[in-house]
Write a structure and sequence with these properties.
The structure holds two protein chains of two kinds.
Chain A lengths: L15 H4 L4 H21 L4 H23 L2 H25 L1 E3 L2 E7 L2 E3 L1 H18 L7 H19 L4 H17 L4 H22 L2 H11 L10 H13 L10 H4 L11 H34 L3 H26 L18 H17 L7
Antiparallel strand pairs in A: 1-2, 2-3
Helix pairs in contact in A: 2-12, 3-14, 4-5, 4-6, 5-6, 5-7, 5-13, 6-7, 7-13, 10-12, 12-13, 12-14, 13-14
Chain B lengths: L1 H9 L6 H36 L1 H10 L2 E6 L6 E2 L5 E13 L7 H11 L4 H11 L8 E7 L1 H10 L6 E10 L7 H4 L1 E4 L2 H6 L10 E5 H5 L1 H5 L3 E7 L5 E9 L7 E3 L3 H11 L4 E7 L4 E8 L4 H6 L3 H9 L8 H4 L9 H10 L9 E3 L2 E4 L2 E7 L7 E4 L1 H6 L3 H11 L1 H9 L22 H8 L5 H7 L10 H13 L9 E6 L2 E4 L14 H16 L17 E7 L21 E8 L6 E7 L5 H34 L1
Parallel strand pairs in B: 2-10
Antiparallel strand pairs in B: 1-8, 2-3, 3-4, 3-5, 6-7, 8-9, 10-17, 11-12, 11-21, 13-16, 14-15, 17-18, 19-20, 20-21
Helix pairs in contact in B: 11-23, 15-17, 15-22, 17-20
The chains are: A mainly alpha, B alpha+beta.
EC number (chain B): 3.4.16.4
Membrane topology (chain B): Single-pass membrane protein
Pfam family, one (chain B): PBP_dimer
């Protein structure tokens, strides 16, 4: 206690959120989002009280994780970052050899009664590691440092990709890339990397991608080609959203959702239920809440005191945005189908705890500030 | 920690903090701007879908006609070895309503009431169920309609749009309580099971195997879901014929090794007594009968047992839900004396001629104070040999042999008869029992082994406990003098139209019967148990048409060392367990049995007669089956 909490020994005159190191604006945004999410979930689950209860229990666990991480001063995990990262990589390797196969993919490690996915740790450990790496060096980074950073991202990304878990590996890679961007990589570099990606894309298409992955892209380009097969999800979700109109059909009244035309309506496609029942206004509201949370995240990043926390806060916020964008993009048909949940709204998902833990880190960055001279 | 942070701020002289902070903040602002732009892109996309093309999508939503309906697979049937149906599927009809498809719910209900199909209580329950139900889902108003009710409604169905008869196949067990402990049962899928199954495949399934075979073979019995695409209107009403149908694949049928005729005789012979009857074929581990008494009606569990009835079963002193054949742990008592005798011969501790004096008690050499009594106060004479010790079930002979053998040798060799290990029966719920040893006691009780405990282990008492299945398996193994197999109830399963045989697998540990002379000494003694004037099962097997061998056991539940045991004075629940194990025909065993009757008294008088009935039935059936086969083949020519 004394070791890590010496700077808030004076508890007098502090409110409970301050003592807990919670950031009230961020907390408020999260609570509004979760409340809205539960209302939509109740409808999407077919008015299932049991699903709602399980979701609330999961949220409660996630909140505990958030409060715990908010309570730890950032410099503590800054010190431990390389070890956390190394341990995470080792666990990923362990998964390959001793992992449990769930639904055809090898992602789980079992410790007695506890089963968990080491890739969840990496969602936090990768941006932490890169932020740590750059915080020790002068910025903007030079070529050698960029190469090191690329390796730090590539190793866990590849380990997760071969599990195989494409959605998570994309998230983890982008969280690392965000740190590099925030660390001030020059625009010339960004430009040439983008050009390189354009050249590489056809090679990837013809030599790396599996048929089922290509199929997803075809479906994305023209869902009407196979309306009852691979295009079914995306067509039904667009009909659901589109038929919602400006004001929506009303809560529990969405025919697409309630007649079960819409598949996976309580998990990955829950956004379509919202669009159908709450209409464009509902979508505006949801995006406004997401924007508020993301805005607060950037505010915390800008106000952060050192390079490590600034990079970390920015990367966490951007990664959260990727979730939002990829999911909504997929459901509205602007992106191909990638299995990512709508954060804090979709039913279930092991990612909820990790997400809330990352918000705990954001809160910790905002609330554990040292009084610097000058 | 302080030291390291000092290094960050001062360590790199070329680190320009002001510039760096400016760079990072500008990057954050750029990133936020990109976020805003991209969120706007999503908004524009939504605007496009919901406002610009609203009418388009609204029409498509109203026209949305293709609904996918899951079709449940038929659960596999279970037959006995002669093809008699033991578990079948029966149609159950229920009257259901989809509220969204009914224009005036109140009027419809009133009209249904006036037809007499439903009563006020059905209406009340329906209105209660109505709340908190998923929309466009049908809700049962009355379940289990009779055939007449179905016919009556069918005539008037056009008057009731939105009301329909739903037919469902539900498991039925024609033999009810007699067979429940061999089959198990299915019941409604609960929340915990929902998490463990492949939900896509169970989408149309309501029941799942809960215990016994039904649970063990769930994967085989369930089958694969099918589906059909139908056209429906915006109220969810089906229009016309299915557009496409992928029929479900029924679950596999199973044929058991069990013979229902034997099972029925065994259940009837047990009457109201508590206990278990097991019959196996020692040549391959096939289970011919498996009774645990009392049983209960599994059909109640299929349709949902009432709380009152369930409580009654749970709280019954007779524990009807407890599967004694698989999980009942009993001291084997004297039934293992032949095995111990055989081990004694094999280890050279005794010969067929060597004798022990039995004055009615036995003491550990040089420890005169502790007296181990014979069940017969007067003893069996001063010269008891192995043959006589088995026929008359003489205790001191085996006290002496076990004491000289030592617990470790005894225990190790008894493992070779399957004690303390799973029989491998395909039920998934059995327990392995305990074959005690020095090591076992150190590990579990943290106290050393006492010599006196070896002595009573010699007559199958003490820590030693075994299931009826293990007892049948062990006596069968000694009877055939060969390989012991893992027990199995399922003999064959059906893949499409082919029956595939399950190949029996030998158990891991096996006794070595290469010395034929030693084996035949104990086998002959066991035959004399059923034939000699002083044999303990002689009365039960009087005038039997076949030669059988066996061993009785009378297992004490109260200590007999100090007081004289008086069956009349001891409370019923503390009376001796009657046990009998045996096999037949003596020279070429085909069937081995184990019977345990709880608190019944003597094995010879209470358990052996049940074995007699079972073996009589077995050989009678064999004869009549042969005759029938002969007649059938004569008719052909």
């Amino acid at each position: 206690m004394a070791l890590i909490d010496y700077d808030n020994s004076d508890r007098r005159g502090k409110s409970l959120p301050q003592q807990l190191h919670l950031d009230l604006p961020l907390l408020a945004g999260l609570l509004v989002l979760i409340g809205f999410g539960l209302i939509v979930l109740y409808s999407a689950s077919g008015e299932s009280q049991a699903q709602l209860n399980r979701q609330v229990v999961r949220l409660a666990i996630a909140f505990v994780a958030m409060i715990f991480l908010a309570w730890i001063p950032p410099r503590v995990y800054q010190k431990w970052t390389p070890f956390i990262f190394a341990a995470g990589v080792l666990l990923l390797v362990a998964v390959i050899f001793v992992g449990d196969k769930g639904k055809g993919a090898q992602r789980w490690l079992e410790f007695g009664v506890i089963r968990f996915q080491p890739s969840e740790i990496m969602k936090l450990a990768v941006p932490m590691m890169l932020a740590w790496y750059f915080s020790e060096r002068a910025l903007p980074p030079n070529v050698k440092e960029l190469l090191v950073a690329a390796v730090l991202i590539a190793v866990p990304t590849l380990l997760i990709m071969i599990q195989p878990d494409l959605g998570t590996s994309i998230l983890i890679a982008s969280s690392g890339v965000f740190v590099i961007f925030l660390a001030g990589i020059s625009w010339r570099w960004i430009g040439s990397l983008a050009a390189l990606a354009l050249i590489y894309a056809p090679i990837h298409w013809f030599f790396v991608m599996q048929d089922y992955q290509k199929q997803r892209v075809f479906t994305y380009l023209d869902p009407e080609k196979d309306p009852l097969g691979s295009g079914y999800h995306i067509i039904q979700s667009q009909i659901a959203i589109g038929s919602g109109g400006l004001r929506g059909k009303g809560w529990l009244e969405g025919t697409q959702s309630q007649l079960e035309f819409l598949p996976e309506r309580n998990t990955d496609f829950i956004f379509a239920v919202l669009g159908e029942e709450f209409g464009f206004l509902g979508i505006v509201m949801l995006l406004a809440v997401y924007l508020a949370i993301i805005g607060r995240g950037f505010f915390i990043a800008v106000k952060a005191q050192d390079t490590f926390t600034r990079l970390l806060a920015g990367a966490i916020t951007l990664t959260f945005f990727v979730y939002v964008f990829v999911n909504i993009g997929m459901v509205t048909g602007v992106l191909p189908v990638v299995g990512l949940p709508l954060p804090l709204v979709s039913y279930g998902g092991t990612s909820m705890v990790t997400l809330m833990a990352s918000f705990g880190i954001l809160m910790g960055i905002q609330t554990h500030k040292k009084l610097l001279p000058g | 920690m302080l030291k390291s942070s000092t290094r960050y701020s001062n360590g790199h002289s070329f680190k320009d903090h002001y510039q760096e902070r400016k760079l990072l903040i500008s990057r954050s602002i750029i990133a936020f701007a990109v976020v805003v732009v991209m969120l706007c892109a999503l908004l524009i996309r939504s605007w496009h879908l919901q406002v610009v093309k609203y009418e388009d999508y609204q029409t498509r939503s109203n026209d949305n006609r293709i609904s996918i309906q899951p079709l449940p697979p038929k659960r596999g049937l279970i037959y006995d070895r002669n093809g008699i149906l033991l578990a079948e599927n029966r149609s159950i009809y229920s009257l259901e309503i989809i509220p969204e498809q009914v224009d005036d719910l109140e009027a419809t209900l009133t009209r249904l009431l006036s037809t007499g199909l439903i009563e006020e209580k059905h209406k009340k329950k329906f209105l209660k169920d109505l709340r908190g139900q998923r929309r466009f889902k049908s809700i049962a108003i009355k379940s289990r309609l009779s055939e007449q009710e179905v016919a009556r409604f069918s005539v008037d169905r056009f008057k009731f749009p939105g009301v329909r008869i739903e037919a469902r196949l539900v498991r039925f067990y024609p033999f009810g309580a007699e067979l429940v402990h061999a089959l198990g049962y299915v019941g409604r899928i609960n929340d915990r099971e929902l998490g463990q199954i492949d939900q896509a495949n169970y989408k149309a399934t309501r029941h799942i195997g809960k215990v016994g075979l039904e649970k063990f073979y769930e994967d085989q019995l369930h089958g694969t879901i099918g589906f059909r695409r139908v056209e429906i209107d915006v109220q969810g009403r089906v229009i016309g014929k299915p557009l496409f149908e992928k029929p479900p694949v029924p679950g596999r049928n199973l044929r058991l090794s069990l013979d229902i005729r034997l099972q029925k005789v065994a259940a009837a012979a047990m009457g109201v007594d508590r206990g278990s009857v097991v019959a196996i074929d020692p040549r391959n581990g096939e289970v011919l009968a498996l009774v645990s008494n009392p049983g209960y009606d599994p059909n109640e569990f299929v349709t949902g047992i009432s709380t009152a009835n369930f409580k009654k079963l749970m709280n019954s002193e007779d524990r009807p839900l407890f599967n004694r054949a698989l999980r009942g742990l009993y001291s084997p008592g004297s039934t293992i004396k032949p095995h111990i005798g055989w081990i004694g011969l094999e280890k050279g501790l005794i010969t067929p001629q060597s004798t022990v004096a039995d004055p009615g008690y036995w003491v550990i050499p040089n420890e005169e104070e502790r007296v181990y009594r014979d069940w017969n106060r007067r003893g069996h004479g001063l010269k008891v040999d192995l043959n006589m010790a088995i026929i008359e079930s003489c205790d001191p002979y085996f006290y002496d042999l076990a004491y000289r053998m030592g617990i470790d040798t005894l225990s190790k060799n008894m493992l070779d008869f399957g004690f303390g290990q799973y029989t491998g029966i395909d039920m998934g719920e059995e327990v392995p029992g305990i074959m005690p040893s020095r090591q076992w006691k150190r590990d579990t009780r943290k106290i050393p082994w006492f010599p006196g405990e070896t002595v009573i282990t010699g007559i199958g008492q003490g820590y030693w406990i075994a299931t009826p299945l293990q007892l049948a398996n062990a006596i069968g193994q000694l009877g055939i003098g060969g390989t012991r197999y893992q027990l199995n109830l399922v003999n064959e399963y059906q893949v499409e139209n082919e029956w595939v045989k399950v190949i029996p697998e030998p158990s891991e540990k096996q006794a070595d019967f290469s010395n034929a002379a030693n084996l035949s000494v104990v086998q002959r003694a066991m035959r004399r148990v059923t034939q000699f004037p002083r044999g303990t099962a002689k009365t039960a097997f009087k005038d039997s048409q076949y030669q059988s061998a066996g061993k009785t056991g009378t297992v004490q539940l109260v200590t007999q060392a100090e007081e004289k045991y008086d069956a009349n004075k001891v409370a019923k629940r503390l009376r001796d367990n009657a046990v009998y194990v045996g096999y037949a025909p003596y020279d070429k065993p085909e069937i081995a049995v184990a019977i345990v009757v709880e608190n019944a008294g003597h094995g010879g008088s209470e358990a052996a007669p049940i074995a007699r009935q079972l073996l009589d039935e077995y050989f009678n059936n064999k004869k009549s089956d042969r005759m029938a086969a002969k007649m059938a083949s004569e008719e052909k020519f």
